[in-house]
Design brief:
Number of strands of chain C: 12
Number of helices of chain B: 7
Strand order of the largest sheet of chain C: 1-10-7-4-2-3
Structural class of chain C: alpha/beta
Order of helices and strands of chain B: HHEHEHEHEEEEEHHEEEE
Number of strands of chain B: 12
Number of domains of chain C: 3
Number of domains of chain B: 1
CATH class of chain B: Alpha Beta
Strand content of chain B: 15-25%
CATH superfamily of the largest domain in chain C: NagB/RpiA/CoA transferase-like
Shape of chain C: globular
Largest sheet of chain B: 6 strands, parallel
Radius of gyration of chain B: 21 Å
CATH superfamily of chain B: NagB/RpiA/CoA transferase-like
Helix content of chain C: 40-55%
Oligomer: heterotrimer
Shape of chain B: globular
Distance between the termini of chain B: 56 Å
Largest interface: B-C, 83 and 100 residues
Largest sheet of chain C: 6 strands, parallel
Chains: A alpha/beta (246), B alpha/beta (240), C alpha/beta (468)
Helix content of chain B: 25-40%
Structural class of chain B: alpha/beta
CATH topology of the largest domain in chain C: Rossmann fold
Chain lengths: 246, 240, 468
């Protein structure tokens, strides 16, 4: 009998605080697939907001804390492309001056995956058991697409849900305008970029736009609500678990 | 700043910069002239394939391709082109560079100017005026690059730079010996040319010409013939 | 002019651009077209990826011996009868050219497109000295007539309507011309042809300079690069030191990918290789050739954080894919070089403080790095710039306070929990139908344009108890 897969969930600061339902859906999907889910409590954030704004010593301190918290995890699953990228691409260099933690960071980077990548690469899973139905379009979040090189796993998972009619989003690979603090440093530019994205989304006729990043979802959902659109923004986990936001 | 101080500043920075390992500049042929000879031998076998590619690429960039059986067919073809453009004046490279003498076109009502070697100030001025007045400029082509539909012209004695630039229409005449398939091969040929440039080139300019002059600077609308020719013709002479 | 632009706060420049409806349209059309053409040019070109890797390696290897290659280049140019000038600063470069003009009785100079000459504000200096500079690249000609700066590296006048262009060119022609690109191009051809034939001096930049042979390489589409290097009696090329490459074998690697990246063409209409002044027996060509090697701050980055920015080929591909550039255009960047690479070049040439706002004019989406022919990691360097700006105390104190607080929250689970509890308590009055639509202070920057989800009634941490 195959050993049970154990995975630790890195919930991300945005999902923890604003979209806990994404975490709940993620846990449900993983358990349905026979994964034993752990949740190291006390986790806060991957530190990317500090890193992107140039506060590297601070980001390193947060990285050290995170590396310690997730020590010993067999797999780390992150329902966010940007946070997974932060751990995989930036943590080792950030902790270069601390040999023990650097080694731990390299190890953690190898064991960390964004959710769709974990589902496909580690579990070989699909979305066949989800009851979700409707026309759906998918937005490529920048760090998942360009940072982690992943374009096919989320699409394949969406397509495998029997009730889903997946339509390709024009300009799917174009940024939504979130960019973390960019969204509040330069809100007019961020909003103008967002408007293009939302126009493309509405043009597909989909009833929901899916992304794998809480930051993108905050931006896109915030815009859809503001323009009273009928379109909803959902996380991939919510579609695969067959749930919807109230 | 003096050369010495300028370079010293750079030297200092280069010395303290971290060096990324495992990078190198492009490999160069150790014996460029032999390598160029090898390219020519290769092309002697592959000129037909190269020609097919060239025609496709040349037409794609808006060039007009013609084929004549032999050198004797060039003159009437040029006349045909000239009539098509309602041209009254023509300027050309000298017969030694072109491989043919177009002076006789004068009897067909075309004013013909040919490049001279060793011009003086007056000759230069006259040539410039004639070139600016001519509607057609006829040159050879030193290399013809199939991959991109490009004509490569060396300037020099009897090979005026502006013949392919000032008139509205440029006509280039070439045969199979000029065909090259790839940019990489052009790199080899350029290396070979520069081994002893005084011997291999009498001019200071090499022009790669890929179709007519163009711009899209006004609302991204493509227009041709901005400063250079509006039309480029290539005449391929079949006979070896 | 550029100094003043950089002194206007960036958000103001950006806001003006966002309000300009024609600019918005023009940017969308132009950048979309360039992006599509580039994609097509690389999709049928399997060798492209390996060539990009090779091109990057060549740039890096060249930088490792930059002094040697510059020396070799200079020796070869001088051997050909050319003159080499070593300009540590833009001012030195300008002075060299002005001295030449005085000395040789130059009254009118025709210019081929050169970002380096924009960088050193050459045109204004020439005009002040009584020399008329005439831009001959059609886009540059248009903006010169309009007394403006270029807004894109490749298509300097994309922010102008054909109606605006018609007005400008009609004024020169002294008769009304239709707002038709063909007619306007034809008129410009005539207007500028005269200038080429009469000019005393031709001024160009250099896309590359081949050290092994002393060759300056110009990549153009219009033919003006050939005109200005064949007709006037003096040719001056102004070149950033990072443009030198070792050999012709290196040159063809770059030629294979440059035009594809910039405009989607396999090669531009003209690639011109110039080896010094005209040779004896040539009918045309300058009597004199001057190569001005410009440092202007570049050498400081050889061992600096922005070293990779020295690989830049000035193709403009990063501009076309940048969500910020596509929204605000080139003028909002306030300096010679716009777009993602422009932020790095501005920092390189004007200092870190000049980009305290611009360094944040990026969502770090990475599209620029994706399309750069030499794979410059622009996002990484933008983050480094932000770090420098922070470290050097250039960032405002209020910002550092906000991030200091954030740090404390992220390093302590109880503090993080407290913040969510506090958020929940404070948001009550602002919540409408389960959304936050109007928040005060910093958060109003979000809610001005988007709804914000409220802090969840129970965070995931709190719900985990039930999921355990």
């Amino acid at each position: 009998m195959a050993a049970r897969v154990e995975a630790s969930l890195m919930i991300t600061c945005l999902a923890d605080t604003f979209f806990p339902e994404v975490g709940v859906a993620t846990v449900r999907i993983l358990r349905r697939l026979g994964v034993s889910v752990r949740f190291p409590e006390g986790q806060t954030c991957c530190g990317m907001p500090l890193f992107n704004s140039g506060y590297h010593d601070d980001a390193a301190a947060v990285a050290a804390r995170t590396v310690d918290l997730f020590a010993g995890a067999e797999h780390v699953v992150v329902p966010s492309g940007s946070c997974a990228w932060m751990v995989k691409a930036e943590y080792p260099a950030l902790l270069a001056r601390d040999p023990r933690r650097h080694a731990a960071a390299v190890d953690l980077a190898a064991r960390t995956r964004e959710l769709s990548q974990f589902l496909r690469e580690v579990l070989g899973a699909d979305g066949a058991s989800s009851p979700f139905a409707g026309k759906v379009t998918y937005h490529d979040s920048c760090h998942l697409l360009r940072g982690l090189g992943e374009r096919s796993a989320p699409r394949a998972l969406l397509q495998s849900v029997p009730g889903v009619d997946l339509v390709e989003l024009p300009g799917a690979d174009e940024c939504c305008g979130f960019g973390g603090s960019f969204s509040v440093r330069l809100p007019e530019i961020s909003a103008a970029i967002l408007a293009k994205k939302l126009d493309n989304v509405e043009r597909t006729g989909a009833r929901c736009v899916v992304a794998c990043d809480a930051g993108c979802l905050m931006q896109i959902n915030g815009g859809l609500l503001r323009r009273r659109s009928a379109v909803k923004a959902l996380h991939l986990a919510q579609v695969l678990a067959g749930e919807e936001k109230a | 700043m003096t050369r010495a101080t300028f370079l010293e500043r750079i030297r200092k920075e280069v010395a303290r910069a971290p060096v990324a390992a495992g990078v190198s500049t492009a490999p160069r042929p150790p014996h460029p002239e032999a390598a160029a000879e090898a390219v020519r031998r290769q092309m002697a076998e592959r000129w037909r394939e190269a020609l097919d590619s060239f025609v496709r690429e040349f037409e794609r960039v808006g060039g007009i391709f013609h084929r004549v059986a032999d050198l004797a067919g060039v003159r009437p073809k040029i006349l045909e082109i000239a009539r098509g453009h309602e041209a009254t004046a023509l300027v050309a490279w000298d017969p030694a560079s072109l491989g043919l003498d177009l002076a006789s076109l004068a009897s067909d009502g075309l004013a013909v100017t040919t490049a001279t070697s060793d011009p003086d100030g007056d000759a230069r001025r006259r040539h410039r005026e004639d070139s600016a007045r001519a509607q057609i400029g006829v040159t050879g082509a030193d290399f013809v690059l199939a991959e991109t539909g490009t004509l490569i012209l060396l300037s020099g004695r009897g090979r005026s730079r502006v013949t392919s630039l000032l008139p509205d229409t440029h006509v280039a005449v070439f045969d199979r010996s000029r065909l090259v398939e790839s940019l990489a091969q052009v790199g080899v040929l350029l290396e070979a040319l520069h081994v002893d440039p005084a011997r291999s080139m009498s001019g200071a300019m090499i022009n790669f010409i890929t179709g007519p002059s163009r711009t899209a600077d006004i609302e991204l609308t493509l227009t041709r013939g901005v400063h250079g020719p509006k039309t480029v013709h290539a005449i391929f002479v079949e006979a070896p | 002019m550029s100094e003043t632009s950089l002194q206007t706060p960036f958000p103001k420049r950006a806001a003006a651009a966002l309000d300009d409806r024609f600019l918005q349209q023009a940017l969308t059309i132009a950048t979309t077209k360039f992006v599509d053409m580039r994609r097509e040019a690389f999709s049928g070109f399997p060798q492209g990826e390996a060539l990009r890797d090779q091109a990057r390696a060549i740039k890096e290897a060249t930088l490792q011996k930059l002094d040697l290659y510059l020396e070799q280049l200079a020796d070869n140019v001088e051997r050909l009868g050319g003159h080499v000038h070593w300009a540590a600063t833009g001012e030195e470069a300008r002075e060299t050219i002005l001295a030449l003009c005085r000395d040789r009785g130059v009254r009118m100079a025709v210019k081929s497109k050169s970002m380096a000459t924009e960088e050193i504000d050459l045109n204004e200096a020439l005009e002040r000295a009584g020399v008329t500079p005439v831009e001959t690249d059609l886009g540059e000609y248009i903006i010169q007539l309009a007394h403006e700066k270029p807004s894109h590296i490749i298509a300097p006048a994309i922010h102008k309507t054909k109606g605006q262009v018609a007005e400008l060119i009609s004024a020169v022609a002294r008769r009304p011309l239709p707002a038709d690109p063909e007619a306007l191009t034809a008129a410009a051809r005539v207007q500028l042809r005269q200038k080429f034939l009469e000019a005393d001096m031709g001024i160009t930049g250099a896309n590359f300079a081949v050290a092994d042979t002393g060759t300056v390489v110009l990549v153009t589409n219009e033919g003006n690069g050939r005109m200005v290097t064949s007709l006037p009696r003096i040719h001056v090329a102004v070149m950033g030191i990072e443009k030198v490459i070792p050999s012709m074998s290196d040159l063809v690697v770059f030629l294979a990918i440059l035009a594809r990246s910039a405009t989607g063409q396999k090669l531009s209409s003209y690639t011109t290789l110039v080896r010094g002044p005209r040779q004896p027996g040539e009918l045309e060509g300058p009597e004199e050739f001057h190569l001005i090697l410009l440092d202007g701050g570049r050498s400081r980055q050889i061992a600096g954080a922005l070293r990779e920015a020295l690989y830049c080929l000035r193709c403009g591909a990063c501009l076309n894919v940048c969500p910020v550039y596509r929204q605000i255009g080139g003028h909002a960047y306030g300096y010679t070089y716009p777009g993602p690479i422009g932020i790095l070049l501005t920092a390189m040439l004007k200092g870190d403080a000049s980009v305290k706002d611009l360094a944040h004019a990026s969502s770090l989406c990475g599209a620029c790095k994706d399309v750069c022919p030499v794979r410059i990691d622009i996002p990484r360097m933008l983050i480094e710039l932000r770090e420098h700006v922070g470290r050097e105390g250039i960032a405002p104190r209020s910002e550092r306070a906000v991030f200091g607080t954030l740090r404390r929250l992220l390093l302590s689970s109880p503090a993080f929990r407290f913040a969510t509890v506090a958020g929940r308590a404070l948001q009550g009055p602002f919540a409408r139908q389960g959304r936050l639509q109007k928040l005060p202070f910093l958060l109003s920057r979000w809610t001005r344009f988007r709804d914000l989800p409220p802090v969840a009634a129970r965070t995931f941490h709190e719900r985990w108890k039930d999921l355990k």
